[in-house]
Amino acid sequence: MPDMEWMNSLLVDVFGRINKIEERAIAAGFGHAVSISEMHIIAQIGAEQPVRMSRVAQAVGVTLATLTVACDRLEAKGLVQRARSCQDRRVVHITLTDKGRTAYEHHRAFHERMVAAALAGLSGEQTAVLAHSLEKLRDFFRQEEVAMEQAAQG
Question: Is the pTM of the predicted complex or chain greater than 0.90?
Answer without folding.
Answer: no
